[in-house]
Protein: Phosphonate ABC transporter ATP-binding protein
Organism: Paralimibaculum aggregatum
Amino acid sequence: MLKLEQLEKTYRTGDKALTGIDLTVPDGQVLALIGPSGAGKSTLIRCINRLVEPTAGRVWLDDLELTRLSATGLRNARRQMGMIFQEYALVERLTVMENVLSGRLGYVGFWRSYLRRYPQADVDEAFRLLDRVGLLAMADKRADELSGGQRQRVGICRALIQNPKLLLVDEPTASLDPKTSRQIMRLICELCAERGLAAIINIHDVALAQRFVQRVVGLRAGSIAFDGAPDRLSPEVLTSIYGEEDWEATSQQAEDESEGAE
Ligand SMILES: Nc1ncnc2c1ncn2[C@@H]1O[C@H](COP(=O)(O)OP(=O)(O)OP(=O)(O)O)[C@@H](O)[C@H]1O
């Protein structure tokens, strides 16, 4: 279980990005984080694994208080939190397999990974994951030969090979077309269900979030403006999260799009 208590972040510039966030995410729950630009979504995700240092408050992952950890403790704890990024963050000149195995870096140590001597069990697991996401035939291709959707699948495998307790997912579909976006969201949610994994997914597209997740948290100006089931996101609620911004414009999904090919 992930627990945030009165989490705050004020950047050095004086920008107050988070103002006292309380949030509990049980094991196995997939939560979408929505809200207008600048609401604090990326900051919230990054304060959990301390890529951004919170100014105040606490973060717990089960009985481990992440906000109290030293650098070494944090390095170990980060293994338990897989991260998936909008821009995939792959090493372009490495193969798909090498990119997936780089998710084991926190376990095997620098030299072993530098020399590409991963334990056979890790290689076997990488093949299993690539098979699961439909990329087995691509294992030896270079990352820069892949499409956006394929790259994100590699990013997902790299996060999962860490064997995390929690996935932190930052705009996984922002660089993808609508159909690929749905496939990627479906895949992330299916994998979480298969593994009993919790996830926080920062996502711009409200319709996409509504379609796949069990719980939506709406951030506005660094505070939680909504926390509930996706079917409770009425136009009034969305207006309370997005204000005057036209929230319908956040949906990539065209009404007349064909679903047949998925
Ligand atoms: N490195 C930084 N230094 C100073 N201020 C920052 C920094 N990163 C974010 N901010 C500010 O913190 C606030 C929250 O930003 P954040 O990126 O978390 O929002 P967001 O909801 O993820 O936005 P978007 O959807 O546009 O990515 C904004 O006011 C932003 O300008």
